[in-house]
Amino acid sequence: MVEGVFYSIKKNNFNNDSNRPKTTNKDMKMFTKTMKTAKNVRRIGIECSKELIEKMVLYQNDPRFDEFDDEVLKYFSEGLQRLSCLQSIRLNLHYCKRITDKGVKYLGEALKRIRPLKSIYLDFSSCKNITSQGLKDLKEGLKRHGSLRYIDINLDSCERVTEKVPKNYIVECLQRLRNLQTLKLNFELCFNMTDQVLKHLGKALQNKKSMISMVLKFNRLTKLTDEGLKNLSEGLQSLNSLLFIDLHLRLCNGLTDEGLKYLSQGLQAQSSLKSLSLDLSCCENIASKGLRPLGASLQKLTFLQSLSLDFSLCNQVTENRVKFFHTNLKKIKSLKSLDIYWGKNWLNPFLTLHNS
To answer: Which helix (H) or strand (E) holds 297?
Structure first.
């Protein structure tokens, strides 16, 4: 049994040499031919991302990324359908600007025809031409994969993903995943996302008894309000198996202390939780009052070992309240690591606690 086949452009391949070889759609055809002869492959993936490259501007018009378009997903999807033992897909197309809904539709059609997967990772971040229609086609493909245990979908900066439809299609898929263990969603900078996303996510989370890890990134969604956090909290309250939560709400200025109160209720229900990271930095309407119910809820998590809270640039949160908050959290006997960020320095913790 072949464990995996991967195709990648590594970041250390980037340089200033204009004569360097380009990766083109023809290369993807060759990759597809390789897939034809590897029917027993369990895992397959494409990596063609600019992630972690410091000189982003320098490579912004790198020709290799301009070569990747909908035809890439067409060839990739054709190859998928020949892999009878496939269990996992990893597809990273970060900043591939020529990928559109047409390419996503190819992938959705392929997903309808392959055996049920256990794991899927799809990174379409900064693919500016993907819209809600593309997500609809993807949803139709994912319907077949109710046995998924791991799902990671990144739509960071996909600004054309809107809520002109009744539900967010990706979130709607989650309701079918009864055995889901790890959920990762990144909707950062999807400016048109509203409370409807959290409403349907809250419903999708209900009765996910096997889920142990959740990472949600909603940074800079300025249309989110307290009502959205209320809906998310209701979903959290139906879970009791989560061990890890990482929630990002940076610059969500529609949130207030009332929303933090709702969220606290959902966190309090996580009796098995071992690690929590909560980013509320730059939420200008979060004040000291909101820390009271949050602190009370966290103190009831008797298995909590690692806690990171970011209130950087929350100007209505006072230093005295943060210090008092820190003092109470130290009373959690199981806690081994505590970092609280506050003030103008978001790079270094304002208050810490680290026990061996």
So the answer is: helix 291-298
pLDDT tens for each residue of 102-118: 999 999 999 999 999 99
Q: Is residue 167 part of a domain?
A: yes
Does residue 320 form part of some domain? yes
Find the angle CA(114)-CA(167)-CA(143) to the nearest 5 degrees.
15
Q: Can you give the pLDDT at residue 59?
A: 34
Angstrom distance (rounded) from CA 13 to CA 27: 16
* CATH classification of the domain holding 144: 3.80.10.10
% of the chain surpassing 90 pLDDT: 58
The pLDDT assigned to 170 comes to 78
Question: Token pair for residue 305?
Answer: 């070992």
By C-alpha distance, which of 63, 122, 120 is closest to 97? Answer: 63
Total domain count, the chain: 1
Domain containing 169 equals 43-71+87-354
Q: Any idea of the CA torsion for 316, 321, 323, 324, to the nearest 10 degrees?
A: -160
* H and E: helices and strands count for the chain: 11, 12
pLDDT tens sequence across 20-54: 444 556 666 666 666 656 666 777 777 665 443 33
Q: Residue 321 has which token pair?
A: 């309240």
Per-position b or e across 157-174, b if 16+ CB within 10 A of its CB: bbebbebeeebbbbbbbb
Residue 94 pLDDT class (50, 70, 90 cuts): confident
Q: Is residue 38 included in any domain, yes or no?
A: no
Written as one string, the DSSP assignment of 316-339 is BS-HHHHHHHHHHHTT-TT--EEE
Main-chain dihedrals φ then ψ at residue 346, nearest 5 degrees: -90, 0
Does residue 216 lie in a domain region?
Answer: yes
DSSP E strands in 68-124: the ranges are 88-92, 119-123
Question: How confident is the model at residue 14, as a pLDDT?
Answer: 38
Return the residue matching tokens 């023809």: 26
- Please count the other Cβ atoms lying within 10 Å of the Cβ belonging to residue 29: 15
